[in-house]
Amino acid sequence: KKDIPVANFTIHEIHCSRNIEVCCYCHESIPKTEMKKHVESEHVQVTCKCSMKIEKSLLEDHEASACPLRPAVCQHCDLQLAFNKLHEHQSYCGARTERCSGCGLNVMVKDLKEHPRVCG
Fold first, then answer.
1. Tens digit of pLDDT at every position of the chain (120 positions)
2. What does the alpha-carbon distance between residue 39 and residue 34 come to, in Å, rounded to a whole number?
3. Where is the TRAFD1/XAF1 zinc finger domain positioned along the sequence (predicted)?
4. Measured at the alpha carbon of residue 57, what is the angle toward residues 52 and 61, in degrees to the nearest 5?
5. 20 phi and psi, to 5 degrees?
6. Claim: this prediction has a pTM higher than 0.85
7. Cα angle 113-116-120, degrees, rounded to a multiple of 5
8. What gap in Å lies between CA 114 and CA 45, rounded to an integer?
9. Residue 88 CA to chain centroid, in angstroms?
10. Is residue 27 helix, strand or coil?
11. Are 86 and 72 in contact (CB under 8 A)?
12. Domain ranges of the chain
């Protein structure tokens, strides 16, 4: 999968066919002596804390951006909780009220950022 000089092609092709193998999972060129280690370290199936089975090499991205149990922070109270609980918590949390120090009215937490425009 690399450009090589024409003069070296035959020798290179013989070397590659003898020493290099293409991974059937990721299609990367891997030395034959390291293929077993590559498959075991990169393509073995592991179970995420959310019970989803996934390739080990993809686990980090899954945990960061797709796992329903990944950490998430409430926009209203900065509490950290699981992503799959965030929507329900924010609905409840944003509906709480706090007294406005400017006008004295009780304002829902989700509206506090916009309230100063109408508060006067």
1. 778 888 888 898 898 889 999 999 899 999 999 999 999 888 899 999 999 999 988 999 999 999 999 999 999 999 999 999 999 999 999 999 999 888 888 999 998 888 888 886
2. 9
3. 78-120
4. 65
5. -115, 145
6. no
7. 170
8. 48
9. 22
10. coil
11. yes
12. 1-42, 44-68, 74-117
Q: Which two tokens stand for residue 58?
A: 């993809």
51 sits in the region (left: phi over 0; alpha: psi -120 to 50; else beta) called left
Selection from 78, 69, 46, 77 nearest residue 59 by Cα: 46
Question: Hey, what amino acid is at 95?
Answer: A
Cα 81 from chain centre: 16
Residue 66's closest CA among 80, 54, 81, 77? 54
CA–CA separation, 113 and 52 (whole Å): 38
